[in-house]
Design brief:
The protein is 82% helix and 0% strand. It is mainly alpha-helical.
């Protein structure tokens, strides 16, 4: 009788079995979807954090490079200004030397405020020491200009 009773209610038993199976898979599917979404979000977060760290490292490297470039440019500007000042000093020294040579060759020595004439009074030595001093100054200007040029040649490739 049990078997016959089961045969009478086979539809209901089948519906209950299908409903239980569907409920089981629906609950497990929601759990699987939630688990998959959590793993996906964790992976996305890790990827975004890694990308952010890479961007920060690149930004720091860029800022350091810009600072080095700024320092090098400042040094080059300073050396260019020094070179220009040396060139101006050299030109001034050459003009003074030319004027001293011209004055010495003409036999006339310009009067200073404390000199009465070029007659050996204080301040007029007439031994060519002015020309020698100016020549030494020009030599020093040349050496300084050469050192400046060497420094610029050393720094230029670093830009």
């Amino acid at each position: 009788m049990d078997a016959i009773a089961l045969l009478r209610f086979w539809r209901e038993i089948l519906i209950v079995g299908l409903a239980a199976t569907a409920t089981y898979f629906h609950v497990n599917r929601d759990h699987a979807i939630a688990d998959c979404k959590a793993r996906w979000d964790a992976r996305d977060k890790a990827e975004w954090e890694a990308a952010y760290q890479v961007q920060q490292a690149h930004q720091q490297a860029l800022e350091a490079a810009e600072k080095r470039n700024h320092d090098i440019e400042a040094k080059l500007n300073d050396t260019a200004q020094e070179r220009d000042a040396i060139a101006r000093d050299r030109d001034t020294a050459r003009r003074l030397l030319g004027a001293a040579i011209a004055a010495a060759g003409s036999g006339q020595v310009p009067k200073a405020a404390d000199q009465s004439a070029a007659d050996g009074t204080p301040g007029a030595r007439g031994d060519g020491s002015l020309a020698q001093d100016v020549g030494l100054a020009i030599g020093e200007c040349r050496r300084n200009a050469e050192r400046l040029g060497a420094l610029q040649a050393e720094l230029a490739p670093q830009l």
